């Protein structure tokens, strides 16, 4: 299920600050038609924390329709640091959801044994396969390769979105000895190419709103062992990701999509602030020929 590039969609807003569901549907169709292997709804990029429960439900429905039409998977972000409430949220996921992206418990900083107990409890009750979201610079929680390997051996834990802020020793250790049926997806846009080179099967990349086809080609090149193409493309796309992440995600991406007429406004909800004009025009420029 988890190969190729999965795009964690932004949430576009109209001039009144309401979610622009028609624009969301168009972006979903666009990235899937450009070669994305699936969508992720309600990620950080989708400003999930700023959405009401009703908006979240409609976002899932909109993304599910686009995926269903093409027979591609929809993953939905489920965030929380209390095992029971995350379990309840998983059980409430509507039809049309194929997997859940579940953050390592944040802020609380349980032990790694606690992290294992958390995911093993969730894996026993989840209606859909789980993708662990490992992002220690946001959660504050270390998770070793040994812990991920143990969790990856569980039949209901299908993948990890690996976002350690670089290619660390645990990434090398994990990718050198993966449990059967457990996929690693790069979750730090700038480091996806080296992770693919080590054996990751794809990525969950906000940058792939732009140049989706080039990101899909990057994943395919590394899978096919085409080092020359993978390396060259990886360097170019890393420059695009750097430009898109020059200010807090997803502000620059929204700025570029708006400048290109793909969403009605570049607005974000507080505490995010819109990206500067300079950051948007620089990223727009880099995005024009990312694959060459
Ligand atoms: O929402 C996501 O999923 C992602 N969020 C990361 C972030 O906001 O830092 C970036 C990554 O591309 C995917």
Automatic annotation (TrEMBL):
The keyword Lipoprotein appears for this protein: no
Pfam families assigned to the protein according to its UniProt record, in alphabetical order: DHDPS (PF00701)
UniProt catalytic activity: L-aspartate 4-semialdehyde + pyruvate = (2S,4S)-4-hydroxy-2,3,4,5-tetrahydrodipicolinate + H2O + H(+)
Site (Part of a proton relay during catalysis): 44
UniProt pathway: Amino-acid biosynthesis; L-lysine biosynthesis via DAP pathway; (S)-tetrahydrodipicolinate from L-aspartate: step 3/4
Gene3D superfamilies: Aldolase class I
First-listed, main subcellular location of the protein, grouped into a coarse class: cytoplasm
Keyword annotations from UniProtKB, A to Z: Amino-acid biosynthesis, Cytoplasm, Diaminopimelate biosynthesis, Lyase, Lysine biosynthesis, Schiff base
Positions annotated as active site in the UniProt record: 133, 161
One GO MF term: 4-hydroxy-tetrahydrodipicolinate synthase activity
Function text: Catalyzes the condensation of (S)-aspartate-beta-semialdehyde [(S)-ASA] and pyruvate to 4-hydroxy-tetrahydrodipicolinate (HTPA).
Family note: Belongs to the DapA family.
Subunit structure: Homotetramer; dimer of dimers.
Alphabetical list of NCBIfam families matching this protein: dapA
Name assigned to this protein: 4-hydroxy-tetrahydrodipicolinate synthase
